[in-house]
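User: Sequence in, structure out. Go.
Assistant: Echoing your sequence, followed by the structure tokens.
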Amino acid sequence: QVQLQESGGGLVQAGGSLRLSCAASGRAFTSYTVAWFRQAPRKEREFVAGVRWGGGGTVHADSVKGRFAIDRDNAKNTVYLQMNSLKPEDTAVYYCAADQWGEGVNTANEYEAWGQGTQVTVSS
């Protein structure tokens, strides 16, 4: 099973950008679907974006389409989340998650490995 470590969070002004990284340790990284979820205070965890195993496609939540982009570098065992045009409502702890051979990209319960999370704070 992979282990995941997020990085790249921080404080940014509205309209700014951040790039989150999710580094995976372990074998067979290409067999894992990887996704980003986020959880704001007093709210449930929500799906942000995911990239399917192998050369599979990407999925983005409607709330971030056109602003966020997920991609993966299998040679580096890393998945990235580029976040542009950030809004205060994007403030949350962002988690990456991995599911081997996963098909349900936006379903949190299907993911077997989770990182510790990285805080993203967007000021107005």
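User: And one key feature?
Assistant: The first strand starts at residue 3 and ends at 7.
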